[in-house]
Amino acid sequence: MTCNLAICDDEPVILSELERRVKKALSGFNLQPSIYTYTSGEDLITDFENGVDFDLVILDLSLKGIDGLETAKKLKEKNKSIMIVFCSGYDPYPELFKVHPYSFLYKGFSEEKMNREIVDILQELETSRKDGQFVLFDGKEAKNIFIRDIVCVEGTKRGSTLLVTDKKTGEESRVLTKESLEEIWNQYPELIRIHKSYLVNAHHIVSNKMNKVLLHDGKVLSVSRSYRNEATKAFFDNIIKKH
Q: pLDDT tens digits, the chain, 243 residues: what are they?
């Protein structure tokens, strides 16, 4: 599967080394990326604005000119689905998480640790590219919705309502289906039961506190006692996959 991958670091030696490691790790994946390398955030943004649709961007934080965080913000303004990975010799700081980076590569990692992290990043990229789809039939036409784009599902008397996020704009919309909550839950194990009336996508959970989950869009949903263990396990399993 084809995709666009960008690596940006203003130190040519580090840039070349990151590119080498990424290319080496790619041999184990079914990905056919076009790899773009940059020494400035400005050049990366120029290509992006001229139509290069990046799937993954590995960004040095301490870039001259527009730094890595500002570059990430500009990318995310236009396409919220871009997978951002920060790379730095310094520890991450809270403001970085406002752009929801997938992970953080520390330049002081051992070669073995760095290689493992890169493999994990590519695994997530491959998974997102072949993400499962929810096939919705509303009585007139069939529609495909990527499972990862489903934030949550609410059961109704006549079926269910899916809250779906647009990958690029981040905007949410509601989609109706005649399928019951039970039918959806049985077909798509990626969606976690937290309540008799709700399923949520673990990928969209920001925090899980006993009887409530906070989602990326700020929505807070109650977790029933009978589903609490399942919701907690799904939340931590998702964290482990990212780190």
A: 688 999 999 999 999 999 999 999 998 888 888 999 999 999 999 999 999 989 999 999 999 999 999 999 999 888 877 899 999 998 888 888 888 898 899 998 988 999 999 999 998 888 776 555 666 655 555 667 777 788 999 999 889 999 998 876 778 889 888 889 998 888 777 788 999 999 998 878 888 777 888 888 888 998 888 888 877 777 666 654 554
Give the number of other Cβ atoms within 10 Å of residue 2's Cβ: 9
Q: What are the b/e assignments for 116-146, b being 16+ CB within 10 Å?
A: ebbbbbbebbbebeeeeebebeeeeeeeeee
Residue 41 amino acid letter: G
Q: How many CB atoms lie within 10 A of CB 63?
A: 22
Residue 138 CA, distance from chain mean position: 28
Q: Which domains are present in the chain?
A: 2-129 (3.40.50.2300), 133-242 (2.40.50.1020)
Alpha-carbon span 155 to 81, nearest angstrom: 27
